[in-house]
Amino acid sequence: MVYITEAHPSDVWQMQSNIKDNVVFASPRSEEERSFAAGACVRKLGIDIPAVLDEFGNSTEQAYTAWPDRLYLIDATGHVAYKSKPGPFGFDAEALKNAVSRVAQVH
Predict the structure, then answer these.
(1) Segment 54-72, tens digit of pLDDT
(2) Phi then psi for 37, rounded to 5 degrees?
(3) How far is 11 from 3, CA to CA, in rounded Å?
(4) Is 61 helix (H, G, I), strand (E, B) or coil?
(5) What is the pLDDT of residues 70-99, one digit of tens each?
(6) 59 by DSSP, 3-state: which?
(7) How many CA atoms lie within 13 A of 42 on its CB side?
(8) Nearest-angstrom CA–CA distance, 95 and 93
């Protein structure tokens, strides 16, 4: 997982679900603030896969058009094996599960 630009910083606009879930952060002004927000997101969502931070210029987000959030599955050769529709409402768990199965069968 790559943590990219914050989706709903409190100093820009806020979703009620963020307030309800107690994940309210202003736009980070440093790598440390961004790391703190990303860590809170990972813990709150119960993410148990490796997570890294995009650099402050968001080059990964720009390269993969990851805004709004998308799920990508990268195979062992470095190719995109699955790309979701924009999330969080475009995620299709069954399609991702099938893609993971296909990639696992190859290796």
Answers:
(1) 888 888 878 876 566 778 8
(2) -65, -40
(3) 19
(4) helix
(5) 788 899 998 999 988 877 777 888 998 999
(6) helix
(7) 16
(8) 6
Strand-pair partners of 72: 83
pLDDT confidence of residue 102: 92
Taking only the tens place, the pLDDT of each residue in 2-32 is 888 777 788 887 777 777 877 788 888 888 9
Ramachandran category for residue 58: left, alpha or beta (phi over 0 → left; psi -120 to 50 → alpha): left
Judge contact between 99 and 79, C-beta under 8 A: no
Find out whether 85 and 91 touch, Cβ atoms under 8 Å: yes
Residues in the chain: 107
- Label the pairing between strands 52-53 and 72-74: unpaired
Q: How many CB atoms lie within 10 A of CB 100?
A: 13
Q: Decide if 81 contacts 99 (C-beta within 8 A).
A: yes
Q: Residue for token digits 């990972």?
A: 42
Q: Do the Cβ atoms of 84 and 92 come closer than 8 Å?
A: yes
Instruction: Tell me how far apart the alpha carbons of residues 83 and 35 are, in angstroms, rounded to a whole number.
Output: 25
